[in-house]
Design brief:
about 350 residues; alpha/beta; Rossmann fold; 2 domains; 4-stranded parallel beta sheet
């Protein structure tokens, strides 16, 4: 069988029967990277863990759990919504054409349904010839949801194995990643292990790929927050951040906002730069009276609820309140925005067109 990957090409090739060691390595690589970058692309990183804890916990798929179930359940003393309302999309009977949507994931049930679920539904509505299925790259989140809610979400290997077992001929993969970074490359590498299992494979681009993508995302977030744009309010977006070169997407978005006259819009990160202190300094320099905080992430999970809007003294909300500002937190993910979902649909369309 042949391989046709145009939208996001990769050169590695192999069959679905590739050695378990190579698949395990790909899974482990993607899982380890997830703690630093994937959360910014598809979500907030961990479920009640620090970044360093997540880095260890993300290797669960290969080495087993690093924390006990009792400890994790004791830590979660909040309600994330009804998990039964979310479509996990791990059914068989796929047919010849599959559109596999890969996300980092979140254990916040309502946000998962309103963001990742909404993106998947938009893709299903747009492509009736394809069966839409889900895969998460973060096994720590998969395990957490299954333990807590008794609901199983496929990881990347399980989703690909399901496609093989269902004899899918044409596989299109659309990641919900924010940027073309390390984990996106890891996903491509893992899919390459299955390249000979399908007649055609194509991978869609992340949200922020072309200059046009940046412009449209800028317009979407500005329009989404226009009711707060009164000249006295600083509107601050919190991204995840990564030590990789792809962290430059945040500076690029900031430059675009500033160049287009949105001088009261600021972009920072929770794990890299610009930091909350950097953003606070800019807000002070602008003489603003109030602050609106919103995540620049596809979902509103742990980072949005705790690192941004939490009550700990180092949360963004607390930092700005300590600076003397009236703070309003908008806890919603980019996946809730219709214009953002349209972009994912267009990226998937480009991938589908590449294998026709």
């Amino acid at each position: 069988m042949g391989l046709a990957v145009v939208t996001a090409s990769f050169t590695a090739c192999g069959s679905s029967d590739s050695s378990s060691e190579s698949k395990k390595a790909a899974t482990t690589a993607a899982s380890t990277e997830a703690s630093s970058e994937a959360a910014s692309e598809t979500e907030t990183v961990s479920e009640n863990t620090t970044a360093s804890e997540t880095n260890a916990a993300s290797t669960e798929a290969a080495s087993g759990e690093d924390s006990s179930e009792a400890e994790e359940e004791e830590e979660e003393n909040y309600d994330t919504g009804d998990a039964s309302l979310d479509k996990v999309r791990n059914e068989d009977n796929i047919g010849d054409n599959e559109l596999l949507v890969l996300s980092f994931g979140t254990s916040y049930n309502d946000s998962r349904r309103l963001t990742i679920g909404a993106i998947e539904q938009s893709l299903e509505d747009a492509f009736s010839d394809y069966s839409v299925r889900r895969g998460f790259t973060a096994n720590i989140i998969i395990d957490h949801v299954e333990r807590r809610d008794k609901i199983h979400i496929d990881d990347v290997k399980e989703a690909l194995d399901r496609a093989v077992a269902n004899k899918v001929k044409n596989l299109v993969v659309q990641p919900t990643h924010l940027m073309n970074g390390l984990e996106y490359n890891d996903v491509k590498a893992e899919i390459a292990n299955y390249s000979d299992a399908f007649e055609k494979v194509a991978i869609g681009e992340p949200l922020l790929t072309s200059d046009d993508d940046f412009k449209r995302v800028e317009n979407a977030i500005v329009d989404w927050t226009k009711e707060y744009d009164d000249g006295k309010t600083a509107i601050c977006f919190m991204g995840h951040g990564t030590e990789a070169e792809s962290n430059a997407v945040y500076a690029k978005m900031q430059d675009l906002l500033t160049a287009d006259g949105h001088k009261n819009y600021f972009v920072g990160t929770v794990e890299a730069e610009p930091s909350v202190e950097d953003v606070l300094a800019k807000v002070k320099a602008g003489g603003y009276e109030k602050v609106v905080l919103e995540p620049l992430m596809v979902v509103a999970g742990d980072h949005a609820n705790n690192d941004m809007a939490g009550d700990d003294e180092d949360s963004w909300k607390s930092v700005f309140e300590a600076g003397g500002y009236e703070v309003k937190c908008l806890i919603r993910g980019l996946g809730e925005n219709e214009e953002i979902r349209k972009l994912y649909v267009e990226h998937a369309q480009k991938a589908i067109d590449s294998i026709k």
